Amino acid sequence: MSRFVSVGNVIVDLVMWVPSVPEPGSDVIASKSEILVGGGLNTMVAARRDGAEVAYAGTHGTGTFGDLARKALRDNGIETIQPQIAGVDTGHCFAIVDDSGERTFVTHVGAEGQLGTEELNRVQLQPGETLFVSGYGLVHPVNAAALAEWVPNLPTGVRVALDVGPLVTSIAPEVLDAVLGRADVLTTNRREALLMAPGLTSGEAAAEFARRWNVLAVVRDGSAGCWVSSPQGETFLVKGFDVEARDTNGAGDAHDGVFLAGLASGLEVAEAARRANAAAAIAVTRSGPATAPTTQEIDEFLASA
Q1: Domains, the chain, ranges and CATH?
Q2: Does this model's pTM top 0.70?
Q3: For a tag on the chain, would you pick the N or C end, based on fewer CB atoms within 10 A?
Q4: Mind listing the pLDDT tens digit for each residue in 10-55?
């Protein structure tokens, strides 16, 4: 399997589980809390656990959160390409998970928001490798400007995948178009897809994205599965799996990592999507961000489905 390289932002998640998200000005007692490394780590862990060689090309800082981020990368067998940025720590995020399994984020940006041209020039990609870009990075001014210039000039044969993320409406249109003009794969969830294509269904949005940007478009549609549309005009639903959701944090990341690892290993699109659906289904039954299953767990889940 070829190398999977991510410029997604690795940050530290301060996760709290609550009965419900409090109203403005009120308070609620968390039943549990954890400090976990998440953000861009989750997709890389998913790809790594499904057999890919993975490298992190994003930036990271000095301080407590930076140390936690680097340890998590090492512990998961992920190469770190960039040196530390002195004088600034890695960012962090408050992740609030309610009893329905839904999550709400508040994020503070740190060193991961300082991925510039000098840093990207350290990243040497070869044909056959996969570059994963997160929409979170495209809303940070430094990252956005550098990626919009760098991505379109990547070597032919490098597979570029973009997950637009929940802040898609905050990405400058010229930045989004620059990255999608070179992208091979676009992934979103249903909410993000409908923000980008108001009035359409998930399947219609996938078809519209594939046509507009000449990409393989994947729209995750919860337990229903995911809609897949090719630039050639074929659109279909790959059915999902009914499970009892405990925590949806990281499910989309698990889906992305396993789907792209599957494509890199030579799987057909539909089979890669089915494995990704299984990975997401397993992930939502677990608490925390980096909850992607291993190859063996996916295989066992599909065998029993």
Answers
A1: 4-9+40-88+114-304 (3.40.1190.20)
A2: yes
A3: C
A4: 999 898 999 999 999 999 999 999 998 988 999 999 999 999 999 9
